[in-house]
Amino acid sequence: MKKLLVCALLAGLIASLAAPAMAWDAAKQKDLGQDANKMQWWLLDFGKDTNGVPYAVTRKYYTNTTIKNETIELLMSKFGISPEVAGSLYFTEYGYEYTEDGKQFALTYLRHFDMLGNEIHGTVYDDSSEATAKTFAAIPAGSTPAKAVNYALDRPATTTTKAATTTKKSTVPTKRVVRKK
């Protein structure tokens, strides 16, 4: 009976941990790699909304403890979140909106979550106040919005890597050489 209860609890825990990851279409999820601060980024959703506006949703996992601690401090000082809740920070989700030409973007929302997918704090940029005004800006080269814009606009990536154009010769011999002793 105890084993059954433990198994049921473990299954529930696994399901609750996996729930935030399953909320997005797996076919659209793309690993965007690490940024300059060694934070891991994922593209979760992209396309055009019902009004034809290009958008993308990204997620940043806190793989750099310095940046994570700075964000925790910000959550506590600016929004009055308790140290226990702020300290449970695991990832942040960003919503982007793009211009049709793909040269500018605006942040549509920013939400901080704990490991179980519970929202710690969020801000929606919906022009309802001066503090939540949606502001368009040029897309910085190499940034996360720059990596996601091509998906949002359904166009192939325009950058190629040097590794894709050069071939490296192997130092391993193609056949084994046996020498006499």
Tell me what you see in this structure.
Strands 1, 2, 3, 4, 5, 6 and 7 form a 7-stranded antiparallel β-sheet that branches. It contains 5 helices and 7 strands, in the order αβββααββββαα. It has a single domain (14-155), classed as Lipocalin (Beta Barrel). With 181 residues, the protein is α+β, with helices and mostly antiparallel strands. The protein has helices at residues 2-22, 65-79, 83-86, 144-152, 162-165, and strands spanning 30-34, 40-48, 54-61, 89-98, 104-114, 119-124, 137-138. The N and C termini lie far apart (66 Å).
String of helices and strands: HEEEHHEEEEHH
N→C terminal distance? 66 Å
- Percent strand equals 25-35%
- Rough shape? globular
Query: How many individual domains?
Result: 1
| CATH architecture annotation | Beta Barrel
> Would you tell me which CATH topology applies?
Lipocalin
Low-confidence stretches: 5-11, 13-22, 159-174
Mean pLDDT, to the nearest integer, reads 82
Q: Based on helices, strands and strand pairing, what is the structural class?
A: alpha+beta
Helix content: 25-40%
**Main sheet record:** 7 strands, antiparallel
What oligomerization state is this entry in? single chain
Instruction: Count every helix, treating DSSP H or I runs of 4 or more residues as helices.
Output: 5
Query: CATH top level?
Result: Mainly Beta
